[in-house]
Amino acid sequence: MRFQYDPITDSNVKINDRYEFPEKLNMDQFLQKPDTTPATYVLHAVLVHSGDNHGGHYVVFINPKGDGRWCKFDDDVVSRCSKQEAIDHNFGGHEDDLNLTVKHCTNAYMLVYIRESCLRTVLQEVTEEDIPQELIDRLQEEKRIEMIRRKERNEAHLYMNIQVILEDSFSGHQGNDLYDPDKANYRIFRVKKNATLQDFLEQVADSLKYPVEQIRPWPLNLRTNQTNRPTLLDLETDLHKPLLEISDNANPWTVFIETVSPDSGLKALTAFDKDSDVLLFFKYYDPRHKRLHYCGHHYMHISFNVQELVPLLNERAGLPQGTELALFEEIKPNLVERLADLDRPLEKVLDELMDGDIIVFQRDDLLDDPNLELPSCRDYFRDLFFRVEVTFCDKTVPTDPGFIMELSQRMNYDQMARAVAHRLDTDPYLLQFFKSQSYRDGPGNPVRCTYEGTLKDMLVCMKPRHPKKIYYQQLSIRINELENKRQFKACRYLFI
């Protein structure tokens, strides 16, 4: 490739001047001694670059047999092309035919010629013996994989994907519902749509190494209040129905698979009466650490009093028996209602009792503790509703990817500064923050330390689906001192 130094831009620039090259090149006049065969060379390949010194695109034109029939290799696309496209169009320079003053940025930068008398030797046919066995194996493997993919594409309409989630995926979840669909560790099963539920359960049981009688499917359905909860399948009537009918043509179809606890000693799951039992899930809220702990599930008769759950919940949470608990029903995001009158039947206490309902419980004596930031689970879920992921980037490092923190949009400046300072292990008063520009990715105006708005106000200009960014820089003096300083110009007078 040809370059020259441009003193105006202080950089090398690509030379796009016109340079013509022939299809056949005779070099006899340059030989020191005449050869037995003419020194005539045939153009075999033209390597072409489009762009400038900083980047571009590469294409190669090849005359495979030296007979003037050209092929164009553009990435993974190989096509026939004319001799004019391979040669004449790559001279570079001005486009005289169109009378334009704009120069081509596409031109040849490497030419490959083969001596005409050696064409048969150089371009002889490639036999299978010439190809390394490793390359043959690789090509055959690629063909095999392509055939499998083609078969899958042709038969895709006959299959459906079923996303299986197990109870261990519920542990550690700190949000609404039982798990985060975007972060869940699904086990994917590809099954035929006309397969029965019995066929699917046998496939799952074989994969999980459980007998069929030790697993039970609970499809996860979206309720009208936008919560995702397990629902009952009537195994007596649905066991031999096709999956397409049971799943309502959902693809993928998400199913929670309940399994026998390994330490229970049971050889089969406990019987579930669809008319009188209900499937409940439990979460324990620890206000001191502001964390939720998944405490399993339980079948309960709808006529039993809610108070009968308390000993079980104390045991699940590792609390002493007799500990007074406050029970709440998690209805939907930002809506958690306390259960009152625990001596009444479950069906009378829970609003619209359904399989998959979630009960959140906590110690009653910590419910109104003034020393706790989020003393009740109602406070926790309200705070969770306003949480947002914010990326903090160092303003002084242009390529800094930043770090992500999950913060409440209701935070004020001081709370945000303390959270970021704790992450950076520095003093919050030695940090200065900058809003992100709305029209491009970069720091905007600084945020004063006396800012009276919330984190939500700082992010108001961000586009909905773009990452929410705030820039910062670490200071050598306190931010309040920096903002109280005034800029002035120093003038020097010289009297003669």
TrEMBL record:
Presence of the UniProt keyword Cell wall biogenesis/degradation in the record: no
PANTHER family named among the record's database cross-references: UBIQUITIN CARBOXYL-TERMINAL HYDROLASE, UBIQUITIN CARBOXYL-TERMINAL HYDROLASE 7
GO term, biological process aspect, one: regulation of protein stability
Family annotation (PROSITE patterns): USP_2, USP_3
Domain USP: 1-116
UniProtKB keywords: Ubl conjugation pathway
Species: Cherax quadricarinatus
Any one cellular-component term (Gene Ontology): nucleus
GO molecular function, one term: cysteine-type deubiquitinase activity
Family statement drawn from the similarity comment of this UniProt entry: Belongs to the peptidase C19 family.
Name of the protein described by the UniProt record: USP domain-containing protein
Top-rank lineage group of the source organism: Eukaryota
